[in-house]
Amino acid sequence: MKKQEFKQRREQLMRQMGAKCIAILPNAPSRQRNRDIDYPYRPDSDFYYLTGFGEPESVAVLVPQREHGEFLLFCRESDPKKEAWDGAMAGLEGAKADYGADDAFPITDIDEILPGLLENRDRVYYAMGCNEDFDQRVMGWIKLLRKQSRSGVHPPGEFVALDQMLHDMRLFKSAVEVKTMRRAAEISAAAHRRAMACCRPGMYEYQLEAELLYSFQAQGARSVAYPSIVGGGRNGCILHYIDNDKRLKRSDLVLIDAAAEYDYYAADITRTFPVSGRFSRAQREIYLLVLAAQQAAIAAVQPGNHWNQPHEAAVEVLTAGLIELGILKGRLNRLIENESYKKFYLHRTGHWLGMDVHDVGDYKVGDEWRVFEPGMTLTVEPGLYIPANSKRVAKKWWNIGIRIEDNLLVTRNGHEILSHGVPKDPDEIEALMAAETAESSL
Ligand code: GLY
Ligand code: MN
Ligand code: MN
What we know:
Elements (H helix, E strand, L loop, with lengths): L2 H15 L3 E6 L5 E3 L2 E2 L6 H7 L7 E4 L8 E5 L4 H7 L4 H7 L5 E4 L3 H9 L4 E3 L6 H16 L10 E3 L2 H9 L3 H24 L6 H14 L4 E2 L4 E4 L20 E6 L1 E3 L2 E2 L2 E6 L6 H19 L9 H16 L7 H6 L26 E2 L2 E2 L7 E4 L2 E4 L13 E4 L2 E5 L4 E3 L8 H9 L8
Parallel strand pairs: 1-7, 5-6, 7-8
Antiparallel strand pairs: 1-4, 2-3, 4-5, 9-12, 10-11, 11-14, 12-13, 15-16, 17-20, 18-19, 20-21
Helix pairs in contact: 5-6, 8-9, 8-13, 10-11
């Protein structure tokens, strides 16, 4: 992403913040995995959204209308010895030249410099409660200013959560963001196709996971967007199953919820398909029902409709279908009202999608569901999960767990399905699986 994109975001945010205020955004801390090994570093999404800066131990400060520069970056100084081991760091010069900071300071000097920046500012925009260590430091700087009040310094009187403004900005994706998300979805879809083509009875779930991971990385996505779920049979009914260590049985379905993060943007795709390559009659019946629910929900993603409409559409189709199959008994309206479907459909139909897989942005404005507008991106992911021994449910339905999840962009006239690159029609899935060899591409 170009420097200009981040600059525009900072400018937009600062326009909304107004004068006499300051925003402080610490980057995410590194996390230790074990002994002297850290987890791969992932910057905080809010921080990265505004800076494009991916190094740990950094803090961004925005001071609208400050004469000597509005965007300040605290970061690590260049250190040739360290860089010989760990690779290049931006350093103070890089922070200015490559990331557009008006000024850059060593992170080790932050306690000396930040109190001065807070002086005589009325409002501080800061995400309190997200990083306890940093909260303490911010409080320390405020205390320091209070002590100086007799010399005419006044500490800021107001702390404001940055979320409201910043997360509303993040909810609406720019053209470049959409392009990146399209790519994340394309990469993820290709990986799902590969998994379908590679699947054989007797494989371990982690072997299918390995095909996905290989495909993500080989296409340039360096991380998953979230831990991959590969659940055969009964494991497909466990919503957050990530053990992925059981064998895939010929007679089972396998549910794969997996996607790549590409350039800090997530995809989030689920497909469910038969391990044998052929749906049984019972599996196909439930599958077609979930697919119909998904199609009804997708049709409801339109500007002007509100957030809950896709969910309502999915619930109606699922409940009616469950009655038709004899799995639920009673009148449609009554069963929807008393939420009988929740026995088989425990989650909601989607969430915002973006830099975070469960992305930021309000789902309600006041008491009202948010209305869809062009530029919003979300998932649509209904499912049905019928574990073994489900009471009053015929045995033929047991251990069927199905979810179908796609990624959508709200457009001016309706929506675009970003994850269209992997089939979900059962005949198309069977055709792909029946093809002689796994795709030799990715
Ligand atoms: N993969 C997480 C979700 O579907 O929400
Ligand atoms: Mn998912
Ligand atoms: Mn999802």
